[in-house]
Amino acid sequence: MEFLKKLEVWFVVGSQDLYGDEALKQVNADAEQISRYLNDQHPFIRIQLKPLATTPEEILSVCRAANYEENCVGVIAWMHTFSPAKMWIAGLSRLNKPLLQFHTQLNKYIPWNEIDMDYMNLHQTAHGDREFGFMVSRLRKPRTIVVGHWQSESVKQKLDRWMRVLAAIYDQQHLKVARFGDNMREVAVTEGDKVEAQIKFGYSVNGYGVYQLVDSINAVNDEEVATLVKEYEAAYRLTDSLKEGGEKRQSLIDSARIELGLKSFLDKGGFKAFTDTFQNLYGMKQLPGLAVQRLMAQGYGFGAEGDWKTAALVRAVKVMSYGLPNGCSFMEDYTYNLEDNNEVVLAAHMLEVCPSIAKDQPVLDIKPLGIGGKDDPTRLIFSGKAGKATASTIVDLGHRFRMITAELNAVDKPQDMPNLPVGHVFWKLEPDFDTGTQAWILSGGAHHNVFSLDIDAEMLRTFAEYFDIEFIHINAKTELPQLKNELRWNEAAYK
């Protein structure tokens, strides 16, 4: 995630010449104070204060510059005073970076004994932001609105969440996804229009022969493999068969070689997300389970069975949640425990679940896969953490993309499962099992999703709004009749 260090958000403060030079000097000084304070809080992306915007020409200039500055990933607009919104038409019409309307003011409290007309003229956010907000709405531009005093903890959190989404948007627009093999045969939901995805999101998806990956794997030297195996031994609890002298030790060595070869291929090609499929493993000894798990933990996106849409979304959520403690992973609804009024979903995949969500130190084991016709693969086995979570997917409906996000309650495993050979997590659906399941299915949700314990639905909504894709939110307030109406209305809205 080194690219995050070069990103910046531009802080543009609106006013007008009507108030005179002294007032504008004060506006600029106040903006400097606010931007300096916010940067001192170590935001996810650094804030760059731009010159005061008081004329249509100045506004157009800064918006054009934001568009063409590669490192600028978004614009914060603050109306310190009243800034007539017709001045903003040309600039906002051309602005193609995410916009945040910062509804704040310098002073937290009204100075009751000193307040006069000079104070009223200078501190007009409550007034000026409504003028600005009308124009943004009139232009039908998506934006995030943050309300509150700039020193409040809630405002800092809202800005941080917005910046995390900006980083993911930027990354999607520069993302390259590598596909090793095609989709799992006859599967529908993992298919999609890769050209339309590149037009809409910016990322590219291209296929590569498994033989090219095998060449990269075979090029790995033994010293690199030995070093990585030692890393495995330090990080995980190895079962006896994988320890030095164990009967399956060679499989662990093969796994290390696969991981190094896969990472080398991705890094040389500039890929930050990838897919594979168990139906196309020609020349490989085993399906890359351990390798995929570890690469996801390093921030790479992944989708199984050729699912490139989920691979790109995993990468987006990885970027959004960088530095946060609870993790996210490629995931699949697998099976249920249907205890009356206490139904839970067992979510997993046949190998590829990211250990960033693990509650305890994972076990590194080798088990039969029963599919793919290759050697038994190594994998990390663990139970996921409990807590508030989301599961999200993007599906291609033929004439548009739809993002579906469900709010979940991840729970501790109800009982031990000594024979379950995969990383996994349990969750309960909102508002209940019946409604949550029906809502996902009615919305066309895929069986693959991105599970996150750090990123909430509103951050994902902001992501979807910027890319102008449909967003369906399943939560504690979801009612099926209303959802069915929303889906019908959206058919018209997105045509």
What does this entry look like structurally?
By secondary structure, the protein is α/β, with parallel strands linked by helices. The chain folds into two domains: 2-172, Rossmann fold, CATH 3.40.50; 175-493, no CATH class. Helices cover 38% and strands 21% of the residues. The chain has 15 helices and 19 strands. The strands form four sheets. It has a six-stranded antiparallel beta barrel with strand order 11-12-17-16-15-18. Helix 8 (210-218) crosses helix 10 (249-269) and helix 10 packs across helix 11 (289-297). The radius of gyration is 25 Å and the shape is elongated. The two termini are 37 Å apart. The model has no long low-confidence stretch (mean pLDDT 96).
Characteristics:
arabinose catabolism, AraA_N_sf, 21% strand, six-stranded antiparallel barrel, metal-binding, alpha/beta, elongated, 495 residues, 2 domains, manganese, isomerase
